[in-house]
């Protein structure tokens, strides 16, 4: 996994660095840093170097830094790959919180159960979008119990 984080900086230093890169004012950076540390439960990890964090913690921190400045749009490529189920669920909670603040989040994933968490899903086969709709509508259209069933039906068309 590659992250935008600086491994040789501490957790709080990474957060503040990106606030500065995004052009935020010092007062806003300080407040938002404390907010992120609290939201992630990282207060006791504040002084920890990023290289010492477990993979799932790095992923959550990287996402929090990416939405630090409240962008309108964020792209995430396989954001929960390689992490345990609890961390995956926690990561999705962070995504939900971001979308509640008006941030659009595009996620690529090979975990079809994660597609269930999305407002809309696009499934590509051989580089072409074969399906695009809500998870509920796709399951209805393909008479599938879950998104894995939808995917398997579409994947049969692959060359």
Key descriptive features of the protein:
7 helices, two-stranded parallel sheet, alpha+beta, 159 residues, two-stranded antiparallel sheet
Notes on the protein architecture:
The structure is a single chain. With 159 residues, the protein is of the alpha+beta class. 47% of the residues lie in helices and 13% in strands. The protein has seven helices and four strands. The protein has a two-stranded parallel ribbon with strand order 1-2. Strands 3-4 form a two-stranded antiparallel sheet. β1 (73-77), α4 and β2 (104-108) form a beta-alpha-beta unit. α1 (11-21) packs across α2, α1 (11-21) packs parallel to α3 (55-66) and α3 runs parallel beside α4. The protein is elongated. The two termini are 29 Å apart.
Total count of helical runs of at least 4 residues:
7
Radius of gyration (Å): 18 Å
How would you describe the oligomerization state of the chains in this entry?
single chain
Strand count, sense and barrel status of the largest sheet are: 2 strands, parallel
Protein name: ABC transporter ATP-binding protein
Enzyme class: hydrolase
GO molecular function: ATP binding; ATP hydrolysis activity
InterPro entries: ABC_transporter-like_ATP-bd, P-loop_NTPase
Layout of secondary structure:
Layout: H1 11-21, H2 26-40, H3 55-66, E1 73-77, H4 85-100, E2 104-108, H5 112-115, E3 121-125, E4 128-133, H6 135-141, H7 147-155
Parallel strand pairs: 1-2
Antiparallel strand pairs: 3-4
Helix pairs in contact: 1-2, 1-3, 3-4
